[in-house]
Write a structure and sequence with these properties.
about 20% strand; about 350 residues; single chain; six-stranded antiparallel β-sheet; alpha+beta
Length: about 350
C-alpha cells in the first residue's frame, strides 16, 4: 500500500488536525530550517520556532500559520482544503464552548469524556455510529454538514451529493448481514466481475482504488469482512502478498479521486474512522437478492461508476460513493469463500 497524503478534512479535533500537519512534514522530509526558507521564498513568514511549537501542541494553529506551513511543504494546491478543515474545527469549537469560554479547537466529546484511536488523540465515535444505525433502521440518513463546510463530493459517475441521502423506495429486507470472514463481493449488474484493486481509468492517481474485474483474476488481494466491534458495520479488508493488509477507505472532498475507495494500510484503520466502516443492508430476507452497501461516514451507497453507460459493465469500472437509488449498479452479491 502506498503512503497517502494526510486528510485534514477527516480530523475531528484540533489534536487530529495537528497530527495531520506532523505527518505532512514527515512526508516531505524537510527540516524546520528548510520550511522557514521555503516560506520566505513564497512571501510567507514562518519562523522555525513557530513551526516547531505548532507541531508540539495539540491546539488549533492560527490560519496564517497553517497556510504558510502547507505552502512551505510544497502543497500550495491543497492549501484551501487545509484552511477549510481548520476553520471548520474552529467554528465547531466556538459553537460548543460555553459563553465566554476560550474555544478549544475540539468537537464535543461523548458523554464519557474519553477519546480513542491512534496516539490517544482520536475522538470516540460510538455515539455517532449508534445514531447512524438507528437512522438506518427507519430508512433515512441525516447527513450533517461539518461546521458549514462543503459536503464530500463523489467522483465521476457517483451522482450528486445531497444533505439528505434518500434510500431506495424499497426498504431493505430483514435478512441477516453477511458472514464475517473471507468473502467475494460481486456487482449484481455484472456477476462475473468481482470488487478488487485496480486504477482510476483517467490516470489521475497512482495508488490502487476499488474497481470491478473478472473474478478469475481478482485475487490477490483476498477480501474479508471484519466486524467493527458491535456496531453492525464491517471493514472491507484486503490482504495482498506484496502490499500487506489494508482496509477500503471512502475518499472525501479535496482528494484527487474524491468519491472513490482506496485501500489504506491496516495500521491506519481505526474503529473511530467511519469512512472505513460499511453497512451491508440485505435487499431480501436471506440476502440472496444482494446487499446495499453504505458508507457509515456519510450514508452514501457504493455503486459501479457509469453503470448506466455502455462502459459500466466493463472490467476496470470504479466502485464509487453515490446517492442511494434503486439502480442495479448499487446492488452487490456477497459470497462467503471457503
Amino acid at each position: 500500500m502506498e503512503t497517502h497524503d494526510p486528510l485534514p478534512q477527516e480530523a475531528y479535533t484540533a489534536a487530529e488536525f495537528v497530527d495531520c500537519l506532523r505527518r505532512l512534514k514527515e512526508q516531505t522530509g524537510l527540516t524546520y530550517r528548510q520550511l522557514e526558507f521555503n516560506a520566505e521564498q513564497s512571501g510567507d513568514v514562518l519562523a522555525r520556532s513557530t513551526a516547531a511549537d505548532m507541531l508540539r501542541r495539540d491546539s488549533l494553529p492560527r490560519p496564517e500559520v497553517v497556510l504558510a506551513f502547507v505552502r512551505a511543504c510544497g502543497r500550495g494546491e491543497s492549501a484551501a482544503v487545509w484552511l477549510g478543515a481548520r476553520n471548520r474545527l474552529a467554528t465547531a469549537a466556538a459553537a460548543s464552548a460555553p459563553l465566554g469560554a476560550e474555544p478549544s479547537g475540539r468537537l464535543p466529546l461523548p458523554p464519557d469524556g474519553r477519546r480513542g484511536g491512534r496516539g490517544g488523540g482520536r475522538r470516540t465515535l460510538a455515539v455517532a455510529v449508534g445514531a447512524v444505525l438507528m437512522l438506518a433502521a427507519v430508512g433515512a440518513w441525516a447527513l450533517l454538514p461539518e461546521g458549514g463546510s462543503e459536503p464530500d463530493s463523489p467522483a465521476r459517475g457517483a451522482g450528486p451529493t445531497a444533505s439528505l441521502a434518500v434510500p431506495a423506495t424499497a426498504s431493505p429486507g430483514t435478512g441477516p448481514a453477511p458472514a464475517a470472514g473471507l468473502s467475494r463481493i460481486r456487482p449484481a449488474s455484472a456477476p462475473q466481475l468481482c470488487v478488487t484493486d485496480g486504477h482510476d481509468r483517467l490516470g489521475r492517481y497512482r495508488s490502487e482504488v476499488a474497481v470491478q474485474r473478472e473474478c478469475a483474476g481478482a485475487t490477490p488481494p483476498e477480501t474479508s469482512l471484519v466486524p467493527v466491534g458491535r456496531t453492525g458495520s464491517f471493514y472491507i479488508q484486503w490482504r495482498h502478498p506484496v502490499h500487506g493488509d489494508g482496509c477500503l477507505t471512502a475518499l472525501g472532498s479535496g482528494h484527487v479521486v474524491e468519491g472513490l475507495l482506496e485501500p489504506w494500510p491496516w495500521e491506519s484503520c481505526s474503529a473511530d474512522r467511519t469512512s472505513q466502516h460499511f453497512l451491508f443492508e440485505p435487499l431480501g430476507r436471506s440476502g440472496a437478492e444482494g446487499y446495499r452497501i453504505r458508507v457509515v461516514h456519510n450514508g452514501l451507497c457504493l455503486g459501479v461508476a457509469d453503470v448506466d453507460a455502455e462502459a459500466g459493465a466493463e472490467a476496470g469500472a470504479e466502485i464509487a460513493q453515490q446517492r442511494c437509488t434503486e439502480a442495479a449498479g448499487q446492488r452487490f452479491l456477497v459470497d462467503a469463500v471457503g
